[in-house]
Amino acid sequence: MNAAKASVVVLAILCAPGWVLAGPGGSGSVSGRVTLSGTAPKSKPLDLSKEPDCVKMHASDPLLPESVVTGSGNSLRNVVVYISSGDSENLPAPAVPVSYDQQGCHYTTHVLAFRVGQEVRISNSDPISHNIHPIAKVNREWNKIQLPGVPPFTYAFEREEIIPIKCNIHPWMQGYFVVLRTSHFAVTGEDGRFSLPNLPPGHYVITAWHEMYGTQSKEINITGESQSLDFSFTAKP
Fold first, then answer.
1. What percent of the chain stands above pLDDT 70?
2. Could you count the other beta carbons within 10 Å of the beta carbon of residue 96?
3. In this structure, are residues 116 and 122 in contact, taking their beta carbons and an 8 Å threshold?
4. 111 - beta bridge partners?
5. What is the pLDDT of residues 74-107, one digit of tens each?
6. pLDDT band at 207 (very low <50, low <70, confident <90, very high)
7. Is residue 112 part of a domain?
8. pTM score
């Protein structure tokens, strides 16, 4: 095969469906850390007295609230960092569901972020009944009881929204569904760190949301390099 034919073959492969020709500078990334400035509120064990089985489960391991969880260096957990403006990729929602389990008389994932149209697989691993109640305002509000041992069920939300979750049977059980249009998001863990990789060149607004401290947004230009971006929330008096 001569050089001209080889070039044609290579170009045909690169332009086939599923291949993307990188623009000038290629894709970039944003990573950073979320911290809390000031003193985090002291956590008191949750009152589980309404459900004796839950009291037994946590007799030696008290269940603590997760609304403000900090780690080393005042890192802040359960912060959702996502692109709130500038994402034009419009990728389809993943076909694989995300999981949300009720175990040990609490939600095993306090803040769950996922895509609009992506299914959530909701399960009950406890030997007692729970009632999951997403208090949606933009999407449809519903609640469903889950008896012990019943199979999981799935549900997909149609619009972007931050949705508080509660159990109508056990009032201390609280969490959040963060339903997003963008495919670029992360939820901070104990180290407070996040990473948003594979960002095409462009101008973006990056937003950090926390259930107690609200939102912060920062603008950034991506030209194909890795950049650092940190957020700091202020503790309430």
1. 89
2. 9
3. no
4. 176
5. 999 999 999 999 998 889 999 999 999 999 999 9
6. very high
7. yes
8. 0.87
Q: What is the CA radius of gyration of the chain?
A: 22
How many whole angstroms separate alpha carbon 65 and alpha carbon 44? Answer: 7
Per-residue model confidence as pLDDT tens digits over 20-48: 333 344 789 999 999 999 999 999 999 99
Domain-located, residue 8: no
CB 32 within 8 A of CB 226: no
- CATH code for position 111: 2.60.40.420
User: What CA–CA distance (Å, rounded) separates 34 from 208?
Assistant: 8
How many domains, the chain?
Answer: 1
Query: What's the token pair of residue 1?
Result: 């095969």
- Do 36 and 71 contact (CB within 8 A), yes or no? no
Picking from 185, 199, 228, the residue whose alpha carbon sits closest to that of residue 84 is 185
Residue type, 64: L
Asked whether residue 19 is assigned to any structural domain, the reply reads: no
The domain in which residue 73 lies consists of: 24-234
Residue 49 lies in a domain: yes
Give the integer Cα–Cα distance in Å for 211 and 206: 17
Separate counts of helices (H) and strands (E) for the chain: 2, 17
CA distances from 236 to 35, 37, 42 (A): 14, 9, 12
